[in-house]
Amino acid sequence: MRSGRLFWAVILIGLGFLFLANNLGFITVNVWGLFWPVFLVLLGIWFLLGSTAKTAVPPLEEDSVELGEAESASITVKYGGGRLTLNGSAQLGQLVSGRFANGLDAHLEREGNHLKAVLQPRHRSFGDVIFPGSWISGRGLVWDFGLSKEIPLALVFEIGAAEVDLDLSELQVRDLVIKTGASSTAIKLPDGAGATSVTVEAGAASLDITVPEGVAARISADSGLSSVIVDQNRFPKQAGVYQSPGYDSAGNKADIRIESGVAKVEIH
């Protein structure tokens, strides 16, 4: 872990100096054009180094959270590094059910018929993994679980260096917040949840967001140095905002706000 932090600290400092030199006019190279190729090469090198390390595979544990009398729920997922897969497969009567490497630590608070849950690894504090390390090549934290399709949900994901696949298509997600660092995240939005508010705060990340057919969307992006690619056949751009025709009257729609630093974001 210590060597991993040092590796990525040196890389980030080096890239920072390149951007600074470019902005000050000391060099005339298109640094932004080189960033993603260089980043991917370095990430690949790190993956190769990690694949040769002898790291124990954390055990997968079956666990669940009962829904009880809840008629709505707010869920915060605090997840460091690894592979996270989520869908709407929770068993009847359960808010959460699935398999969790290092176990599941669920902090619950009930307010009337509303359930608040904070989910994180039981044996490992969030933030222990800032950049890819022990999770490379299938090692590290692997979470594969489902959420309840029975009730409206508000979801917050605080993600470190992870490979994340969120299939929310069957869920009643009304609010979705993604806070992610150096991750690769794929999100499929709900296809029948009514109005869904989506906020994405991304660092050096790659995000792929799918808006299901039949769902309208309005997309605004504060992208900094990011690359934001939007399917304008579905979401034409007007006055700096991408928006589906007939968005205001649509029964199912998503209001998507992107705040990103150095990220690649695709929305289709």
One letter per element, helices H and strands E, the order comes to: HHEEEEEEEEEEEEEEEEEEE
Low-confidence stretches: 125-139
Distance between the termini: 36 Å
| Secondary-structure content class | alpha/beta
In terms of DSSP E residues, the strand content is over 45%
Number of helices: 2
Task: Please tag this protein with its features.
flat, alpha/beta, 10-stranded mixed β-sheet, 268 residues, 2 domains
Notes on the structure:
It is a single chain. This protein is α/β, with parallel strands linked by helices and 268 residues long. The chain is flat, with a radius of gyration of 20 Å. A 10-stranded mixed beta sheet has the order 5-6-2-8-10-12-18-14-17-16, with no helix packed on it. A 9-stranded mixed beta sheet has the order 1-4-7-3-9-11-13-19-15, with no helix packed on it. The protein folds into 2 domains: 50 residues; 208 residues, no CATH class. 16% of the residues lie in helices and 45% in strands. Helix 1 runs antiparallel to helix 2.
Helix-strand layout with pairing:
Blueprint lengths: L1 H22 L7 H21 L8 E7 L5 E8 L2 E6 L6 E8 L2 E8 L2 E8 L19 E7 L4 E8 L2 E6 L4 E9 L3 E5 L6 E8 L3 E5 L5 E7 L4 E4 L6 E2 L2 E3 L9 E8 L3 E4 L1
Give a summary of the structure in a few sentences.
The chain has helices at residues 2-23, 31-51, and strands spanning 60-66, 72-79, 82-87, 94-101, 104-111, 114-121, 141-147, 152-159, 162-167, 172-180, 184-188, 195-202, 206-210, 216-222, 227-230, 237-238, 241-243, 253-260, 264-267. It has 268 residues and is α/β, with parallel strands linked by helices.
